[in-house]
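Limitations

Structures in this collection are predictions, not experimental determinations, and the ligand pose is part of the prediction. Treat each record accordingly. The example that follows, with magnesium ion as the small molecule, is included so readers can see exactly what is and is not provided: the inputs are given verbatim, and the output is the predicted complex.
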Amino acid sequence: MGIIKAKDVSYQYVRRDEDDNIEDINIALDKVNLDVERGQFICILGHNGSGKSTFAKHINALLTPSEGTLYVDGIDTSDEDRVMDVRQKAGMIFQNPDNQIIASIVEEDVGFGPENMGVPTDEIWERVTRSLKAVGMWKYREGSPNKLSGGQKQRVAIAGVMAMEPQCIVADEPTAMLDPIGRSEVIEALHQLNREKGVTVILITHYMEEVVEADKVFVMDQGKIALKGTPKEVFSRVDDLRKLSLDVPQVTMLAYELKKEGLDIPSGILTRQELIDALPTPPYN
Ligand code: ADP
Ligand code: MG
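Predicted complex:
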């Protein structure tokens, strides 16, 4: 079994009036099946309201399925006795960096999670050191998080999750509030943790460029998995993506248009270099 396995997971938000009568039912997840292998870097895409955050909250047992089953490292997240185990295995990073920082000194913030878990003091400091170095924030350890940029704050938040030594990190649009530099810092930090520490990463994003290097991409629509595959497979389906109100990376779009005009180019071009290499050599003589 993969580290995350969703089996026919459905979730309904139910709104009730004062008398507890059901006023409204919103189907946010509709029979989602999804498997993530240990050590993978996967992305979940989808327009607003497609169910991405609802799914993310299931991985951390903040929500449990209305129907179906979700396993995190083999643990059924609906098992109330094991909620803390699930949370320890799957750490969450949210959109707003300001809501995730608790302490007034960077290193204390990073140590907060392991301290809460009852990790011995010596080991807390080892973990804090390792995590801050891993995200490139070691030199800011004695400073105040308030003075950091958005991207730096998110990296501190990632270090805080790392210090709890999860097997898996779920990042729900962690770059949505950041400038382009902050965005690439955060994405690079996540890739590095994946590569060097083998942490499974589930990145939820609507920036197509952030998806290019993923092992696998899932596209959600109306609470369902509408498309899945490697980035190349998914981005080959430009028309389908557009129907799902998603843009594709500019370079993919350009390659797609050139192909439609009759140029001999493979589908699913993801980077500038791939396009350059795929373009027919002009006849110079
Ligand atoms: P995404 O993260 O892809 O934007 P969400 O998981 O936040 O999607 O939302 C999926 C659906 O569930 C949407 O229709 C949204 O309006 C609804 N929804 C999300 N949170 C709540 C909530 N707390 N109560 C009722 N409906 C909700
Ligand atoms: Mg969301």
